[in-house]
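Predict the assembly for these two chains.
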Amino acid sequence: MRPLRQMVDCIHPTLMALTVLLLTGLLAPAPALAVQPDEMLSDPALEARARDISQGLRCLVCQNENIDDSNADLARDLRLLVRERLVAGDSNEEVVDFIVGRYTEYVLLRPRASGSSLVLWAAGPVMLLLGLILGLVYVRSRSRRAGTDPEEALSDEEEARLREILKN
Amino acid sequence: MITELGQFALILAFAVALFQSVVPLVGAARRWPGWMEAAAPAAVAQALLVIFAFAALTWAFVTSDFSLSLVWANSHSAKPMLYKITGVWGNHEGSMLLWILIVALFGAAAALFSDNLPATFRARVLAVQGMIGLAFLGFLLFTSNPFLRLAVPPFDGTDLNPLLQDPGLAFHPPFLYLGYVGLSMSFSFAVAALIEGRVDAAWGRWVRPWTLAAWMFLTVGIALGSWWAYYELGWGGFWFWDPVENASFMPWLIAAALLHSAIVVEKRESLKAWTILLAIIAFGFSLIGAFITRSGVITSVHAFATDPERGVVLLAITGVFMGGALTLFAFRADDMASKGVFGLVSRESALVLNNILLAVAAFVVFVGTIWPLVAEMVFDRKLSVGAPFFNMAFTPFMVALGVLLPVGSMLPWKRAKAGRILRRLVPAAVLALAVGGLLYAVQSGRSALGPVGLMLGTWLVAGAAADLWMRKGNGGLSRLGRLPRADWGRVVAHAGLGVCIAGISAMLAWQQEDIRVVQVGDRVELAGYELTLREVNRVDGPNYVSTMADVVLTRGGRPVGTLHPEKRVYPVAGMPTTEAGIDNGVMRDIYVALGDPQPGGGWAMRSYYKPLANWIWGGAMLMALGGALSLSDRRYRVAAGAARAPRAEGVPAE
């Protein structure tokens, strides 16, 4: 049961802990120890790029955990693969494209804004725009009434009187 | 025997809840005083019965009664007493009972402290609260009975998940539930007001303390969870944007919006329909959260401990409550016309903007959380939405909120002159720009995240100070002490947000790490500190075996402290955990996690320098403290016609 073992390896511990409270507490995760010293590249610039890329790639057998944080075997394989490609001279985009080509877009923690995923990316901005328009309409409807409310607005005469009082 | 009595108490509570949901509602409709007054004793009786059931389950855990299937699956006789007790809610059934206990306690608190409410309104509030209790009692009794016996009791239990055997996580769920369930009170008030057909300033004043209390508890609960993740997971992450975290974050955002808009209802009789809607949605997100975490639909793409049956029941509960409340809302929306009038530049407008930003931010989190499910079901695409998406899509809303907050909180009601407020904020802006500019100059070639984040944090804290200065007016400093607690609450909570933002950005921007194989006696240099691995020992705990390292922390040769990172193995559960060794400081944490022993000798060791780490949770605590100050404001205690604020200490958080 390799897949199960891997799952147990890398089920996101926070998620697990919280979920366990709520579910039945069936599975037990190991603490994630992530990148191991023996995997790391000696060139610090290249290693930094590898870390950067790793944080955007999903450990496929885990729940919402990137390969940089994951303790699963598969995550380790992917980390090594990323470094292999980097050493071979790939750019960051080429590395990601290579991994997506092999494992599909499921591996990306940040979906690309294409096709139906445009909806995901547009949801926030569109809703904000809608909210701002509705909010503005509401606020204007309240403020237009401000002029007509006897309690709120002072007539010119009253303003003049008020100025006089304040002056003294 | 006690177990059976516990089960029996639950069934009785179910019957009482049924009575509580129906009789007062009929009474309120027919104006029958006796029927209406039945609500309060019913709410108290329900609470007493559920307290008894909860105590019975706790007793079974404390005495390690392994004839109960739940105790056997989640406890062990060698476990420390603290974790025997917290084990009660360290599982699905027990945590559901805790949820119900809190629903019932809130209902009883509402019954005891609502003498000032109109009789019909009070009856309706308690009836709605009774319905929520009824739904969850039914769910517990019919799908998740905590009192199931085993035919042949085993000699010992299988232990609680070791990750839960931790003080941070022990108290995380009760606080979270107090928050989730506290929002049920806001919901009950909203639905009762809809039935009543009346939303006025008094309603705003009644509902706000409950919302404040719920929001405070959620803040503490989320902060505890995040803090736990930080020290327990071995690399110092504090927020992962996974569905279970989002499930708690969405109600938090909506509750924050709600407690702001309720002020507008209270002070200005405007935004009524919107506030009612928020109160409904806030509890809706709590229910959705319960569904997400317990059904496994979203988290478990890989068939992880799912339970479709429970999921369906929870979805049905969510659907009935949301559908019912929203239908009622649609019928009554016209009765909730705004009364107050205000100018384009005014505190009202600023609070509208606050609500838009918070609500849309919650919406973004919601869409991101369910998107993998939607994409798979509707578009047949298997994809992931993780931290990089949320960081990018969510952060702008918080930045906008942070930039606008100090201005908005100082604007007067009705009509304001923006110039006057902005002038008062000039010192805060100058200070913020100076901090940002200085940090940008000092750091070399790294992202703008750190300087911008600290600039925003400074702006918020200095803005809060300017706010306080303005309230003080021309009076001396002694006037500060006489300001209403609500003013202090606002200032402290807003400053807390600033502290939290500063902590998050500093930690993300300037963290330093070192990952390497270390031999005993080796020294690692990190951010001006030296870490020496002195020894690694085996230490026996009560129900675990620990591999504990001694790491000496020095700076320029001078000793700073000794850290004890551990790897523990819990033999019964068959599980390892890591315990990081942390040297806490105001300006930085030094964080060490011990990895595996290496084949060639030595140990993998991960060391981190985490600037301003504690500001994250410190800021959250300040926010909660602000909520508490606001809750203790005089107007909730003595104002005529106001419900008394719920007593924060009245609800046991054991």
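Residues 300-305, 638-654 of chain B have pLDDT under 50 and may be disordered. Residues 201-232 of chain B form the longest helix (32 residues).
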